[in-house]
Amino acid sequence: MKQQTFSDIKYSNRKRKTKREEFPEAMDEIILWKHWVDMIRPCYPSGKRGRPPRDIEVMLRMYLMQNWFNLSNAGIEDEIYDSRAMRSFMHMDFLTEQVPDATTLLHFRHLLEDNNLGEKLFNDVKERLDKAVLIMHGGTVVDATLIAAPKSTKITMESVTLKCTRLKKVADCLLR
Fold first, then answer.
1. What is the sign of the dihedral through the CA atoms of 46, 29, 148 and 23?
2. Using an 8 Å Cβ cutoff, are 144 and 114 in contact?
3. Per-residue pLDDT at 161 exceeds 50
4. Pick from 75, 108, 142, 163: CA 20 to 30 A from residue 66's CA?
């Protein structure tokens, strides 16, 4: 078990959680991390040459947050350092390890794209959200949220008219 810092103890006494904290926690419960890591492992570098590879799950968490919050490679790196909610989602011990840098994330994204894994991952997220009867609205750091949808509502990508730019970005994310 990770040792709590004074900051963790102080932060845990708050009266409520923010939406920025609730979203990653909900996604953490929905995603089957072990299954996804096992799917990526055969394509992931072994570390015999070059820099030692970062933990697959850490890279995957960073990649997903980058897409959910529509951030650049450097932007997600900064947000993880700035946001307690994002640091918590990373499941890293910041006393012993650093956040992967923007270039490492870029190489990870290229690895997923080259092996057609990105599309599989986002289709899996979409299916899990559908099963949980949740709809993802996102596009910026402050408003990525999950909204409970009535069970009778059947929304398909074809039936939704994507008029605003933010919704187009979400659709692009889901279809990658």
1. negative
2. no
3. no
4. 163
